[in-house]
């Protein structure tokens, strides 16, 4: 009887807010730690080696650039390879990147985005090991993974070891879009993967080697330093913009959906403070938001609809994530109603999509649901194919 009275008393006190006994605080989640910050895991691999780096402005270790950190640890850096947008990330999209010398360190800068996309034999013979450390956004037509592919190929051919310092994928929770048909392979799409592949660059490097998407793949000595305390469904806000026209999280979230507009006469905000966050045109519109693209050094010297007042949609506050076909479908239908050409660069559209099917489906009037249904068998097969290479849950 006394036992039951005690239990009832506790329940009454709890209801009054009196018996809320102190509980132990939940331990704070460990911070996401990119591979570059896990120095103890890879510095021993660099001792006595001539090292080349494929890096850009996102290659940070805390507040310092990876190059500066490695030099402080007496790593022998003999060359820095520069991808699209350059070593400092201040070149326009598509603008040729020149070779030269880094003014701060005196280390030779070797362009991988100009006349040649791959290191030369002489450049590879000058190094014992190459490092790839660039923040990607998880979209197939974003070209940093193409530069990684060419570096992997050169390393395999010349028996140079390769180290990938992994970073989170801000679009890592999504597996979506058409798979690339190798008939449409280009620098904006080199691998038979979906538009949103849901993999980090480290996982993708393992897959490129494992699936033999480079020649002599078996010769490549590849090491990946994983991200600590990371799962692919985690939200990850990039500390440094990965390129001039992806300045914030909203642009990165919208990029998979708005990239297709690069094959149309419309503007997605290049040459404004809100690239990849607006859509507009000068002759007719789906919205009433007004903006005017202008020449912007380091981001867009000659943007679509330059100096032309444009009207359309402001997407800066919309909920964005994954691949949303409604934008391109709705604008295509508006152009069709006006008897105007929407895909004024159909070949580039097909390269971006990795197939002609998406453009043809839109032109045939298929709904987004019908188009998505056509992707599902290939997406299911890819999900199984990528499984052996995944490093994170």
Structure explained in plain terms:
- With 393 residues, the chain is α/β, with parallel strands linked by helices.
- It has eleven helices and 14 strands.
- The protein has helices at 2-15, 39-46, 66-72, 121-125, 144-157, 201-210, 249-258, 326-337, 346-353, 357-363, 368-386, and strands at residues 50-55, 60-61, 64-65, 76-82, 100-101, 108-111, 129-133, 161-165, 176-179, 194-196, 222-225, 278-281, 289-291, 310-314.
- Strands 5-6-4-1-7-8-11 form a seven-stranded mixed sheet, with helices on both faces. Strands 12-14-13 form a three-stranded antiparallel sheet, with no helix packed on it.
- Strand 5 (100-101) and strand 6 form a beta hairpin.
- The chain is globular.
What is the strand arrangement across the widest sheet?
Answer: 5-6-4-1-7-8-11
Helix/strand-derived category reads alpha/beta
Q: Largest sheet at a glance?
A: 7 strands, mixed
Write down the overall geometry.
globular
Average pLDDT reading: 91
Question: What portion of the residues fall into strands of 2 or more residues?
Answer: 5-15%
**What is the rounded Rg?**
24 Å
């Amino acid at each position: 009887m006394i036992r039951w009275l005690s239990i009832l008393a506790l329940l009454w006190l709890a209801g009054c807010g009196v018996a809320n006994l102190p509980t132990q605080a939940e331990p704070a989640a460990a911070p996401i730690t990119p591979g570059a910050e896990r120095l103890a895991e890879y510095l021993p691999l660099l001792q006595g080696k001539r090292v080349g780096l494929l890096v850009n402005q996102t290659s940070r270790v805390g507040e310092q650039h990876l190059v500066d950190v490695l030099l402080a640890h007496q790593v022998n850096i003999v060359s820095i390879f520069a991808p699209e947008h350059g070593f400092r990330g201040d070149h326009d999209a598509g603008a040729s990147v020149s070779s030269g010398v880094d003014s701060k360190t005196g280390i030779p800068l070797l362009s991988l985005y100009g006349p040649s996309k791959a290191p030369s034999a002489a450049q590879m013979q000058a190094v014992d090991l190459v490092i790839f450390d660039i923040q990607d956004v998880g979209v197939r037509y974003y070209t940093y993974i193409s530069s990684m592919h060419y570096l992997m190929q050169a390393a395999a051919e010349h028996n140079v070891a390769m180290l990938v310092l992994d970073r989170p994928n801000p679009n890592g929770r999504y597996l979506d879009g058409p798979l690339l048909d190798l008939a449409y392979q280009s620098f904006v799409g080199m691998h038979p993967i979906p538009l949103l592949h849901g993999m980090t660059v480290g996982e993708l490097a393992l897959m490129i080697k494992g699936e033999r998407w480079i020649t002599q793949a078996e010769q490549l000595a590849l090491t990946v330093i994983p991200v600590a305390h990371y799962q692919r469904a985690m939200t990850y806000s990039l500390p440094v913009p990965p390129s001039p026209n992806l300045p914030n999280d909203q642009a990165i979230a919208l990029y998979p959906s708005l990239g297709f507009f690069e094959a149309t006469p419309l503007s997605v905000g290049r040459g404004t403070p809100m690239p990849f966050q607006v859509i507009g045109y000068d002759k007719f519109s789906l919205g009433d938001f007004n903006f005017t693209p202008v020449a912007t050094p380091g981001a867009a010297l000659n943007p679509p609809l330059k100096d032309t007042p444009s009207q359309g949609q402001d997407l800066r506050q919309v909920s964005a994530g994954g691949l949303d076909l409604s934008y391109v479908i709705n604008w295509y239908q508006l152009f069709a109603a006006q008897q105007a050409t929407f895909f004024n660069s159909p070949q580039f559209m097909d390269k971006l999509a990795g197939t002609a099917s998406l453009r043809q489906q839109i032109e045939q009037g298929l709904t987004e649901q019908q188009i998505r249904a056509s992707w599902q068998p290939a997406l299911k097969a890819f999900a199984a194919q990528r499984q052996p290479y995944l490093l994170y849950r």
